[in-house]
Amino acid sequence: MDLEQQRTLLSKGAVEVEGRVAGSSNQALLVTITLDGLSAQACYKAEAGERPLWDFPDGLWRREVATYELDQLLGFDTVPLTIAREDLPYGIGSLQYWVNDNHEDHYFTLREMPQFDDYFHRLCALDVVANNADRKAGHVIYDGERCWAIDNGLTFHEEDKLRTVLWDYAGEPIPDSVLEAVNEFANGKTGELGLYLSPSELAFAQVRAQDLVTFASYPLPDEDSDWPPYPWPLI
Q: For residue 114, how many other CB atoms are within 10 A of its CB?
Protein backbone atom coordinates (compact mmCIF):
# COMPACT_ATOMS: atom_id res chain seq x y z
CA MET A 1 0.00 0.00 0.00
CA ASP A 2 1.56 3.31 -1.04
CA LEU A 3 1.43 6.50 1.03
CA GLU A 4 -1.64 7.94 -0.68
CA GLN A 5 -3.56 4.70 -0.25
CA GLN A 6 -2.57 4.71 3.41
CA ARG A 7 -3.75 8.30 3.80
CA THR A 8 -7.09 7.63 2.13
CA LEU A 9 -7.66 4.55 4.24
CA LEU A 10 -6.80 6.28 7.53
CA SER A 11 -8.81 9.39 6.63
CA LYS A 12 -12.01 7.74 5.38
CA GLY A 13 -12.05 4.10 6.50
CA ALA A 14 -14.30 2.51 9.11
CA VAL A 15 -12.48 2.15 12.43
CA GLU A 16 -12.82 -0.84 14.76
CA VAL A 17 -10.99 -0.92 18.09
CA GLU A 18 -9.11 -4.17 18.68
CA GLY A 19 -7.65 -3.38 22.10
CA ARG A 20 -5.14 -1.38 24.08
CA VAL A 21 -1.48 -1.38 23.09
CA ALA A 22 0.38 -3.18 25.87
CA GLY A 23 2.52 -0.89 28.01
CA SER A 24 1.13 2.35 26.60
CA SER A 25 0.85 5.16 29.16
CA ASN A 26 -1.83 7.12 27.33
CA GLN A 27 -4.29 4.42 26.34
CA ALA A 28 -2.94 3.96 22.83
CA LEU A 29 -5.33 1.66 20.97
CA LEU A 30 -4.76 -0.81 18.16
CA VAL A 31 -7.49 -0.37 15.55
CA THR A 32 -8.36 -2.00 12.24
CA ILE A 33 -9.43 0.32 9.42
CA THR A 34 -11.30 -0.88 6.33
CA LEU A 35 -12.36 0.85 3.13
CA ASP A 36 -13.33 -0.49 -0.30
CA GLY A 37 -11.75 -3.87 0.22
CA LEU A 38 -8.56 -2.50 1.75
CA SER A 39 -7.67 -2.89 5.40
CA ALA A 40 -4.79 -2.00 7.68
CA GLN A 41 -4.07 -1.45 11.32
CA ALA A 42 -3.27 1.81 13.04
CA CYS A 43 -2.40 3.22 16.44
CA TYR A 44 -5.22 5.45 17.72
CA LYS A 45 -4.42 8.01 20.41
CA ALA A 46 -7.56 9.74 21.64
CA GLU A 47 -7.42 12.98 23.59
CA ALA A 48 -10.02 11.46 25.93
CA GLY A 49 -7.56 8.74 26.95
CA GLU A 50 -4.59 10.97 27.73
CA ARG A 51 -3.04 11.06 31.19
CA PRO A 52 -2.69 14.72 32.25
CA LEU A 53 0.89 16.00 32.43
CA TRP A 54 2.12 18.94 34.46
CA ASP A 55 4.24 20.42 31.67
CA PHE A 56 2.33 19.62 28.48
CA PRO A 57 -1.24 20.73 27.74
CA ASP A 58 -3.98 18.27 26.81
CA GLY A 59 -4.05 17.19 23.20
CA LEU A 60 -0.76 15.33 22.85
CA TRP A 61 -2.18 13.74 19.69
CA ARG A 62 -1.68 17.11 17.98
CA ARG A 63 2.04 16.82 18.62
CA GLU A 64 2.05 13.32 17.15
CA VAL A 65 0.58 14.76 13.95
CA ALA A 66 2.84 17.82 14.05
CA THR A 67 5.95 15.66 14.28
CA TYR A 68 4.85 13.73 11.21
CA GLU A 69 4.07 16.97 9.36
CA LEU A 70 7.52 18.35 10.22
CA ASP A 71 9.12 15.10 9.10
CA GLN A 72 7.35 15.40 5.76
CA LEU A 73 8.26 19.07 5.36
CA LEU A 74 11.90 18.20 5.89
CA GLY A 75 11.65 15.23 3.54
CA PHE A 76 13.20 12.92 6.15
CA ASP A 77 10.66 10.06 6.03
CA THR A 78 11.44 8.85 9.55
CA VAL A 79 7.88 8.74 10.98
CA PRO A 80 4.95 6.55 9.87
CA LEU A 81 1.96 8.33 8.33
CA THR A 82 0.09 10.11 11.15
CA ILE A 83 -3.16 12.04 10.68
CA ALA A 84 -5.77 13.83 12.79
CA ARG A 85 -9.36 12.66 12.72
CA GLU A 86 -12.49 13.63 14.63
CA ASP A 87 -15.00 10.88 13.85
CA LEU A 88 -13.28 8.17 15.88
CA PRO A 89 -14.77 5.75 18.46
CA TYR A 90 -13.56 7.76 21.47
CA GLY A 91 -13.45 11.17 19.90
CA ILE A 92 -10.77 13.30 18.31
CA GLY A 93 -7.22 12.01 18.18
CA SER A 94 -4.42 10.81 15.97
CA LEU A 95 -4.14 7.73 13.78
CA GLN A 96 -0.71 6.40 12.93
CA TYR A 97 -0.26 3.69 10.31
CA TRP A 98 0.77 0.53 12.12
CA VAL A 99 4.27 -0.75 11.44
CA ASN A 100 4.81 -4.45 12.02
CA ASP A 101 8.21 -4.49 13.69
CA ASN A 102 10.21 -7.54 14.69
CA HIS A 103 9.77 -6.92 18.47
CA GLU A 104 13.49 -7.45 18.97
CA ASP A 105 15.41 -4.47 17.64
CA HIS A 106 15.54 -0.93 18.98
CA TYR A 107 17.94 1.99 18.76
CA PHE A 108 20.70 0.30 20.76
CA THR A 109 20.79 -2.64 18.34
CA LEU A 110 20.02 -0.71 15.17
CA ARG A 111 22.76 1.88 15.72
CA GLU A 112 25.29 -0.92 15.21
CA MET A 113 24.09 -1.34 11.60
CA PRO A 114 25.96 1.13 9.34
CA GLN A 115 23.21 1.13 6.72
CA PHE A 116 21.02 3.12 9.12
CA ASP A 117 23.50 5.91 9.80
CA ASP A 118 21.81 8.31 7.37
CA TYR A 119 18.44 7.55 8.95
CA PHE A 120 19.70 8.39 12.43
CA HIS A 121 21.26 11.63 11.21
CA ARG A 122 17.84 12.68 9.94
CA LEU A 123 16.10 11.51 13.10
CA CYS A 124 18.56 13.41 15.30
CA ALA A 125 17.84 16.62 13.42
CA LEU A 126 14.09 16.01 13.55
CA ASP A 127 14.16 15.44 17.30
CA VAL A 128 16.23 18.56 17.96
CA VAL A 129 13.90 20.77 15.95
CA ALA A 130 10.79 19.13 17.43
CA ASN A 131 12.37 19.26 20.93
CA ASN A 132 11.53 15.63 21.60
CA ALA A 133 11.33 15.05 25.35
CA ASP A 134 11.00 11.27 25.19
CA ARG A 135 13.08 9.55 22.49
CA LYS A 136 13.51 6.14 24.08
CA ALA A 137 15.40 3.36 22.29
CA GLY A 138 12.15 1.42 21.98
CA HIS A 139 10.58 4.31 20.11
CA VAL A 140 12.75 3.37 17.12
CA ILE A 141 11.46 0.19 15.51
CA TYR A 142 12.56 -1.99 12.60
CA ASP A 143 10.18 -3.60 10.10
CA GLY A 144 12.77 -5.90 8.56
CA GLU A 145 13.80 -3.39 5.91
CA ARG A 146 13.98 0.06 7.50
CA CYS A 147 13.56 2.00 10.74
CA TRP A 148 10.61 4.06 11.96
CA ALA A 149 10.26 6.58 14.81
CA ILE A 150 7.04 6.27 16.84
CA ASP A 151 5.60 7.76 20.07
CA ASN A 152 6.18 11.41 19.20
CA GLY A 153 3.65 13.07 21.54
CA LEU A 154 6.09 14.83 23.91
CA THR A 155 7.38 17.33 21.40
CA PHE A 156 7.38 21.04 20.50
CA HIS A 157 7.52 22.43 24.03
CA GLU A 158 8.65 26.04 24.14
CA GLU A 159 11.23 25.26 26.84
CA ASP A 160 14.32 23.18 26.07
CA LYS A 161 13.30 19.61 26.93
CA LEU A 162 15.36 17.48 24.56
CA ARG A 163 15.63 14.05 26.17
CA THR A 164 16.91 11.29 23.94
CA VAL A 165 19.08 8.19 23.62
CA LEU A 166 20.57 9.45 20.36
CA TRP A 167 23.44 11.35 22.00
CA ASP A 168 25.93 9.17 20.08
CA TYR A 169 25.69 11.85 17.39
CA ALA A 170 26.26 14.80 19.75
CA GLY A 171 28.86 17.18 18.36
CA GLU A 172 29.02 15.46 14.99
CA PRO A 173 28.72 17.57 11.82
CA ILE A 174 25.29 17.54 10.20
CA PRO A 175 25.15 16.36 6.56
CA ASP A 176 24.57 19.13 4.02
CA SER A 177 21.35 17.56 2.77
CA VAL A 178 19.91 17.62 6.29
CA LEU A 179 21.03 21.21 6.85
CA GLU A 180 19.43 22.37 3.60
CA ALA A 181 16.06 20.93 4.60
CA VAL A 182 16.27 22.34 8.12
CA ASN A 183 17.24 25.76 6.75
CA GLU A 184 14.14 25.87 4.54
CA PHE A 185 11.97 25.24 7.59
CA ALA A 186 13.86 27.84 9.64
CA ASN A 187 13.20 30.40 6.93
CA GLY A 188 9.47 29.94 6.61
CA LYS A 189 8.60 26.61 4.98
CA THR A 190 6.18 25.56 7.74
CA GLY A 191 3.38 23.91 5.76
CA GLU A 192 0.37 23.03 7.93
CA LEU A 193 2.22 22.90 11.25
CA GLY A 194 0.31 25.95 12.40
CA LEU A 195 -2.85 23.82 12.51
CA TYR A 196 -1.41 21.75 15.35
CA LEU A 197 0.96 24.11 17.17
CA SER A 198 0.56 27.51 18.79
CA PRO A 199 2.33 30.42 17.08
CA SER A 200 4.97 30.50 19.80
CA GLU A 201 5.58 26.73 19.64
CA LEU A 202 6.08 27.00 15.89
CA ALA A 203 8.38 30.02 16.28
CA PHE A 204 10.57 28.24 18.84
CA ALA A 205 10.85 25.24 16.53
CA GLN A 206 12.13 27.55 13.80
CA VAL A 207 14.64 29.05 16.24
CA ARG A 208 15.94 25.58 17.06
CA ALA A 209 16.20 24.86 13.34
CA GLN A 210 18.17 28.05 12.78
CA ASP A 211 20.53 27.12 15.61
CA LEU A 212 21.20 23.76 13.95
CA VAL A 213 22.03 25.51 10.70
CA THR A 214 24.24 28.08 12.42
CA PHE A 215 26.33 25.56 14.36
CA ALA A 216 26.09 22.80 11.70
CA SER A 217 26.52 20.12 14.36
CA TYR A 218 24.23 18.25 16.73
CA PRO A 219 23.97 19.73 20.23
CA LEU A 220 25.71 18.29 23.26
CA PRO A 221 23.75 17.13 26.31
CA ASP A 222 23.62 19.59 29.18
CA GLU A 223 24.61 17.38 32.09
CA ASP A 224 24.22 20.26 34.57
CA SER A 225 20.61 21.04 33.66
CA ASP A 226 17.74 20.32 36.04
CA TRP A 227 16.11 18.56 33.08
CA PRO A 228 17.76 15.14 32.51
CA PRO A 229 19.06 14.67 28.96
CA TYR A 230 18.20 10.95 28.93
CA PRO A 231 14.72 9.38 29.02
CA TRP A 232 13.78 6.74 31.57
CA PRO A 233 13.53 3.91 31.06
CA LEU A 234 16.07 3.99 28.25
CA ILE A 235 14.15 1.40 26.24
A: 7
Distance (Å, whole) CA 6 – CA 172: 35
Decide if pLDDT at 118 tops 90.
Answer: yes
Candidate from 126-135, 147-156, 221-230 with smallest mean pLDDT: 221-230
* pTM tops 0.85: yes
Of residues 150, 138, 78, the one with CA closest to residue 103: 138
- Give DSSP secondary structure letters for the chain: --HHHHHHHHHHSEEEEEEEPTT-SS--EEEEEEETTEEEEEEEEEGGGPPP-SSS-S-HHHHHHHHHHHHHHHT---S--EEEESSSTTSSEEEEEPP---SS--HHHHTT-GGGHHHHHHHHHHHHHHT-S-B-GGGEEE-SS-EEE----S---SS----BS-GGGTTPBPPHHHHHHHHHHHTT--TTGGGTS-HHHHHHHHHHHHHHHHH-BPPPP-TTSSS-SS-SS--
CB neighbours of residue 98 within 10 Å: 18
- What is the Cα 175 distance to its own chain's centre? 21
Q: How far is 55 from 163, CA to CA, in rounded Å?
A: 14
Q: Are 94 and 84 in contact (CB under 8 A)?
A: yes
State the CB neighbour count (10 A cutoff) for residue 184.
16
Distance CA 202, CA 52 (A): 22
Tell me how far apart the 2 most distant CA atoms of the chain are, in Å: 55
Cα 93 from Cα 74, distance rounded (Å): 24
Q: What are phi and psi of 159, to 5 degrees?
A: -85, 155
